[in-house]
């Protein structure tokens, strides 16, 4: 509505109604709320992106490398003749010496999992608690290096100043022990024929996948020589 203020005032002037003012205030409030939501969402997305980037970087950079693999041969002549566990020579224990790759963060082996796959067995192994190892050749309770069982792997530090279950620097070396006969048999109890020719025979192969706490994975192929000769250990 426009009106002349005086008889001599020819300029038109507008009056702002209360309704227009309410609409304006409402628009400002909505804009402020929308801006707050956008800022909050942007912060959440930034945090998620940062976490995802860090985890991806760790998964790529944190690598465990196997520098040496040895299989221990269980020979029939070494067994108790009154109760032999198998009738032919085979690899019943595998020791893998590992290190962390250059650029990797510290690796906690106690949080690592080992996926063992052969022609007849597929088993996920976790880190062993100390003191629960078995001696493969005799079947008696004792100290197998690294305390490996049918569903656990053992770790033993062999170089560096690290503990048995960690890799801190690239100079550190840890031996991972896999109790092949127990893994293949699915049991830690001897007797009853479970261990009759259970293990990796000449020419057999298996795959071991090491997955650390960041999700980084390293795959190692175990390949047993076709013949053992008179050796007590073979490179695998």
UniProtKB/TrEMBL annotation:
<dbReference type="InterPro" id="IPR002774">
    <property type="entry name" value="Flagellin_arc-type"/>
</dbReference>
<dbReference type="GO" id="GO:0005198">
    <property type="term" value="F:structural molecule activity"/>
</dbReference>
<comment type="function">
    <text>Flagellin is the subunit protein which polymerizes to form the filaments of archaeal flagella.</text>
</comment>
<keyword id="KW-0974">Archaeal flagellum</keyword>
<keyword id="KW-1133">Transmembrane helix</keyword>
<keyword id="KW-0969">Cilium</keyword>
<keyword id="KW-0472">Membrane</keyword>
<protein>
    <recommendedName>
        <fullName>Flagellin</fullName>
    </recommendedName>
</protein>
<keyword id="KW-0812">Transmembrane</keyword>
<dbReference type="GO" id="GO:0097589">
    <property type="term" value="C:archaeal-type flagellum"/>
</dbReference>
<dbReference type="InterPro" id="IPR013373">
    <property type="entry name" value="Flagellin/pilin_N_arc"/>
</dbReference>
<dbReference type="GO" id="GO:0097588">
    <property type="term" value="P:archaeal or bacterial-type flagellum-dependent cell motility"/>
</dbReference>
<comment type="similarity">
    <text>Belongs to the archaeal flagellin family.</text>
</comment>
<dbReference type="Pfam" id="PF01917">
    <property type="entry name" value="Flagellin_arch-type"/>
</dbReference>
<keyword id="KW-0282">Flagellum</keyword>
<keyword id="KW-0966">Cell projection</keyword>
<feature type="transmembrane region" description="Helical">
    <location>
        <begin position="16"/>
        <end position="39"/>
    </location>
</feature>
């Amino acid at each position: 509505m426009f009106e002349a203020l005086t008889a001599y005032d020819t300029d038109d002037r507008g009056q702002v109604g209360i309704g227009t003012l309410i609409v304006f205030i409402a628009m400002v409030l909505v804009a402020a709320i929308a801006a707050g939501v956008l800022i909050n969402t942007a912060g959440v997305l930034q945090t998620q992106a940062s976490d995802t980037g860090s985890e991806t970087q760790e998964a790529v950079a944190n690598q465990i490398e196997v520098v040496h693999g040895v299989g221990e041969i269980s020979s029939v002549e070494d067994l108790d003749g009154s109760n032999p566990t198998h009738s032919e020579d085979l690899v019943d224990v595998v020791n893998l010496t590992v290190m962390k790759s250059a650029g990797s963060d510290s690796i906690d082996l106690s949080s690592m999992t080992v996926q063992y796959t052969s022609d007849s067995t597929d088993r996920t192994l976790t880190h062993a608690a100390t003191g629960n190892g078995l001696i493969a050749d005799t079947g008696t309770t004792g100290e197998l290096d690294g305390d490996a069982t049918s569903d656990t792997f053992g770790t033993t530090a062999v170089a560096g100043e690290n503990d048995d279950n960690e890799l801190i620097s690239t100079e550190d070396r840890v031996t991972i022990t896999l109790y092949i006969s127990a893994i293949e048999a699915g049991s830690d109890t001897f007797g009853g024929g479970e261990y009759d020719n259970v293990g990796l025979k000449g020419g057999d192969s298996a795959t071991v996948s090491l997955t650390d706490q960041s999700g980084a994975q390293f795959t190692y192929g175990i390949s047993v020589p076709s013949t053992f000769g008179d050796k007590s250990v073979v490179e695998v």
